[in-house]
Design a protein that fits this description.
Distance between the termini: 29 Å
Number of strands: 10
Shape: globular
Radius of gyration: 26 Å
Structural class: alpha+beta
Largest sheet: 6 strands, antiparallel
Order of helices and strands: HHEEEHHEEHEHEEHHHHEEHHHH
């Protein structure tokens, strides 16, 4: 497959061949009813629930078929690489297949997130990302008239086209299908990410630098930790997200982070061996939510009123703080103004939210 998948199993992976098969053999139905039933009856994740869908991914090339719909190649990219190897150039490949009448099928992807909440700690849940893939055909593989220019080799490999390919009205092929992208034990992921971040930061803090006085020429050797106020107070932002949720009025009200946000995880190891685990939180609201704009015209009380209205739209207390950590709906400057107003006694924040906001102001973070 050409979509994003993890090539190596990691400590936090819950994905198995059995789970992947269950997902792949479940029909796509309205509101994912059949898939949720499969989770409930055929897996250990009986309480799995749907959270959100991401529709921001580009279509990708799938197969090569002829004019009668017969499959020429099951994987476009492998096939085009073989053609380039055999013929030597883009123009030679196109010449070889000028009369072939080959068509490209493509995949329209949606990425659905499901979560099984174990309860307790805010990071104690399993997250499942599942592709819904709809195959379709609407264009020929190769340009119909090379006089208008040829794609370069990278464009041909990506099947990005140059606009001169023969086109037909889009026709779907078969039924949509599910593919399991990843199944993640988020508590394990967060613990591992925090530990690797801390170890890397400790090592960086021990690195020694030379500070030179340009006036006297005197030099002294200091560690990065000694040069950086509050160095050892810093923590991995992902850990802080869940801790802030727990400590805030959102957590006190019983709101669950995994019901309101999903987490786009990444796990990268540098050539030198350094490992980096991170996530980007993704809000899961389905209502249209407008960004807070022109708040510089408002006094502190008016701004706080707008933020409370924002919470009402989202449906939970202190939502604006977490939206301020990611995205552009709430800005960090608005968060700072609220803290300043609270400290000046102009507005009254719940004590727990004041403590979270104060902690953020002392050591800002975001995604």
């Amino acid at each position: 497959m050409t979509h994003k998948t993890r090539g190596t199993r990691h400590e936090y992976d819950l994905q198995t061949d059995v789970l992947a098969t269950i997902v792949a053999t479940t029909p796509v139905t309205k509101k994912h009813a059949a898939l949720l039933t499969a989770f409930a009856t055929r897996t250990d994740w009986r309480a799995a629930r749907y959270v959100m869908t991401r529709d921001t991914y580009s279509d990708w090339p799938a197969r090569v078929i002829d004019g009668e719909g017969r499959e020429i190649a099951p994987d476009y990219r492998a096939w085009i690489d073989a053609q380039l190897a055999a013929h030597g150039s883009v123009s030679a490949v196109i010449d070889a297949h000028r009369e072939s009448g080959y068509w490209l099928t493509e995949i329209r992807p949606l990425l659905h997130y499901f979560v099984h909440d174990r309860g307790g700690a805010q990071d104690n849940f399993a997250q499942f990302a599942v592709w819904e893939e709809q195959e379709y055909v609407e264009r020929a593989v190769f340009p119909s008239d090379p006089r208008w220019g040829l794609p370069d080799v990278n464009e041909l490999r990506r099947a990005s086209g140059n606009g001169t390919e023969e086109r037909i009205e889009r026709r779907t092929l078969g039924e949509p299908r599910y593919t399991l992208q990843e199944a993640t034990d988020m508590q394990r992921f967060v613990a591992l990410a925090g530990a690797t971040w801390h170890a890397r930061r400790q090592a960086e803090g021990d690195r020694r630098l030379v500070e030179r006085n340009l006036t006297t020429g005197e030099a002294r050797e200091l560690t990065v930790r000694e040069l950086t106020p509050g160095y050892d107070r810093q923590r991995w932002p992902g850990r802080r997200f869940f801790d802030d949720w727990t400590d805030s009025s959102a957590g006190h009200a019983g709101e669950r982070a995994c019901a309101r946000w999903t987490f786009n995880t990444s796990d990268y190891t540098e050539p030198g061996g350094g490992r980096h685990l991170n996530f980007v939180p993704q809000w899961a609201h389905t209502r249209k939510i407008a960004a807070l704009k022109d708040t510089h015209r408002l006094d502190a009380y008016g701004l706080y009123g707008r933020l409370n209205q924002f919470d009402e739209r989202i449906g939970m207390p202190f939502a604006w703080y977490f939206y301020g950590l990611h995205g552009n709906l709430v800005k960090s400057g608005q968060m700072e103004r609220v803290l300043e107003a609270a400290e000046a006694g102009l507005i009254v924040l719940p004590e727990c939210d004041y403590a979270v906001l104060r902690r953020w102001q002392q050591d800002p973070y975001g995604f």
